[in-house]
Design goal:
Blueprint lengths: L1 E6 L7 H14 L4 E5 L3 H6 L2 E3 L29 H11 L4 E6 L1 H12 L4 E5 L15 H22 L2 E6 L6 H9 L4 E3 L7 H13 L4 E6 L27 H13 L3 E5 L11 H20 L4 E6 L2 E6 H5 L7 H8 L5
Parallel strand pairs: 1-2, 1-4, 4-5, 5-10, 6-8, 6-9, 7-8
Antiparallel strand pairs: 2-3, 10-11
Helix pairs in contact: 1-9, 5-6
The structure holds 6-O-phosphono-beta-D-fructofuranose.
Amino acid sequence: MRIGVLTGGGDCPGLNAVIRAVVRKGAGIYGHEFVGFRDGWRGAMEGDTVPLDIAAVRGILPRGGTILGSSRTNPYRVEGGMEAIRKALADNGIDALVAIGGEDTLGVATRLSEDGVNVVGVPKTIDNDLSATDYTFGFDTAVNIAMEAIDRLHTTAESHHRVLIAEVMGRHAGWIALHAGTAGGANVILIPERPFDIVKVCEYIEARFASHYACIVVVAEGALPAEGTMAVQTGALDAFGHVRLGGIGQRLADEIEARLNREARVTVLGHLQRGGTPTAFDRVLATRFGLHAIDAVHDGDFGKMVALRATDIVRVPFTAATAELKTVPLERYAEVEVFFGV
Ligand code: F6P
């Protein structure tokens, strides 16, 4: 078979590990040929390809980002986008496609698959918000980067008696904030799943100072105040209609300073969380996803996404993968509330 591979959406540590595993097993064991499409669906629409053989994937396991490039191009927003993809696949003699991406990339893969294109999906996102898989690769790396940052913030918070706020990514799911905040010993964690009460947040901060420790607040970029309690700004939309998040940390700092007359500073971790080398956990998960994805292609088991269930890699229908966002259950959040303000 001649198999196309693409990576779409925000980049994520572990993408190269998937590409490497797909090509190493696909070419080395099954004898398939590979073609890389540059920059996600953009390359698939424009027929912008890159050779992808075993030599091309040597040495990429520890590298962050993606050797294929990525984009947030949505072919359904481009006139004739889907026809262009079909033509590019035919022109390149592609029998099957491995699409590595998050909710948006897999959403496009789902529609392509419904239209009869042979596609297998691999879930990726630092946000860990895909419902059909226990974990996505990239998440563990992002959490470790955020945890290390929080560890470092503790010392300055204590030396200067400040409220230090770490704003982390995660879009509309609080997984990164929950895990990094728990691992880093944050005193308050704010997530999108539970709109926060600024009065309560200020109480936690004062209680923390009363015990002679400074305060670290971890806030997910998608966290919101309870309705009508604090004004927030909204950002621009991307090609998939998602609002560009970010800025809640600074709003929180301004509000805390105004209400408590204490110095509050924000550190926005931003793309640092997506950059650099993947952790061992993410390398292993990404490698296993890649190996199982090429097995699915080889078996002709299309319209499926590989997923982690406990310690097993399974195949699930695309529809299950993108049906709903996996958000933090409130009982998970309640577990860590015991550390707030104390
Ligand atoms: O989905 C991954 C992610 O990093 C989100 O956490 C974040 O909201 C978004 O992508 C940022 O996207 P971009 O890099 O395109 O601004």
